[in-house]
Amino acid sequence: MKFGTVAIIGRSNVGKSTLLNRLLGEKIAIVSDKPQTTRTRILGVTHVPGAQIAFLDTPGLHKPEHLMNRRMIRTTVETIDEADLLYMLMDATSLPGPGDLAAIKYMKEAFTKRPRPVILVVTKVDLVNKQKLLPVLESYGKLFAWTEVVPVSAQADDNIDRLLAVTVPFLEEGEGAYDEDMVTDQTMRTLAAEMIREKVLQATEQEVPYSVAVEIEEFVEEGKLTRIRATIFVERETQKGILIGKQGERLKLISTQARQDMEEKFGMKVFLEVWVKVKEAWREDERTLAELGY
Ligand SMILES: Nc1nc2c(ncn2[C@@H]2O[C@H](COP(=O)(O)OP(=O)(O)OP(=O)(O)O)[C@@H](O)[C@H]2O)c(=O)[nH]1
Ligand SMILES: [Mg+2]
């Protein structure tokens, strides 16, 4: 039996969480087209013949502007430090940019302290044709002495099996650290909060996605029905208005979509009540960040 931890790292929006979900064959991390979707470290455990792999999804490496963002970066740096192996993600639809170079800098710092395999995973290859892919792979390939380079599409499930196959030889001999049936360390409450946040990110633009946090106030299982009461925090009155929408339309859509996801994931009927509250500058507030688990 082999076991190892693999940190999935890279700049915001490269497709880390989409890859994690694909590697597990189950959606446990929320995904959106807005940068800074993932705010915490997310554990996902999978089994392949002869091995257990613990994947750690991380917040994207970006320039931190608020205390929350500094926490996010710290989380990623700590996760890089503890992982046995790194997947560094780069986006096939663009050439290396400042965000990628900054991400590589973080990786190199950890690598210098403790060298270990770093696999370059070039993502979203479904979006580029074969001729365009070669020069992209070449320019990313030059940025570091990568252990392996694996182009994948997490969305189209392309080459994921190859990524797993090149990973297994680098794992150490040993028993898995987690129970056979454990998939993630997130509680149902956390999953529920994240499902709501995902719908908010998908339904809003500009600064709203960054200003939103979700807290579960009540989570009660009553026989076949689960009663969930959640609060969405925003930073300003105007954001509250946007979130609620004309005659409450947007909030209704967000909660309906989130409830459907919960019912599917938890396999039970859900009664979901969602409130919106203004909490000024919560992203700078130690206590609120701690309460939210950031
Ligand atoms: N076409 C295509 N889109 C992808 C693929 N992987 C991710 N995406 C899209 O890219 C966007 C970002 O995906 P995420 O998985 O949230 O990216 P992330 O790196 O986790 O982002 P942060 O958590 O914000 O750092 C979403 O709109 C995804 O649907 C892929 O393989 N193909
Ligand atoms: Mg993510």
Q: How is this structure best described in words?
A:
This protein is an alpha/beta fold and 294 residues long. It folds into 2 domains: 2-173, P-loop containing nucleotide triphosphate hydrolases (Rossmann fold, 3-Layer(aba) Sandwich); 188-292, K homology (KH) domain (GMP Synthetase, Chain A, domain 3), CATH 3.30.300. 37% of the residues lie in helices and 24% in strands. The protein contains 9 helices and 10 strands. The chain has helices at 16-24, 67-82, 98-113, 130-141, 160-167, 188-203, 237-244, 249-266, 286-292; strands spanning 2-9, 42-48, 51-57, 85-91, 118-123, 148-151, 172-173, 213-222, 225-234, 269-278. Strands 1, 2, 3, 4, 5, 6 and 7 form a 7-stranded mixed beta sheet that branches. Strands 8-9-10 form a 3-stranded mixed beta sheet. α6 (188-203) packs antiparallel against α8 (249-266). The radius of gyration is 20 Å and the shape is globular. It starts with a strand and ends with a helix. The mean pLDDT is 97. The protein binds guanosine-5'-triphosphate and magnesium ion. Residues 16-17, 29, 37-38 line the site of magnesium ion (MG).
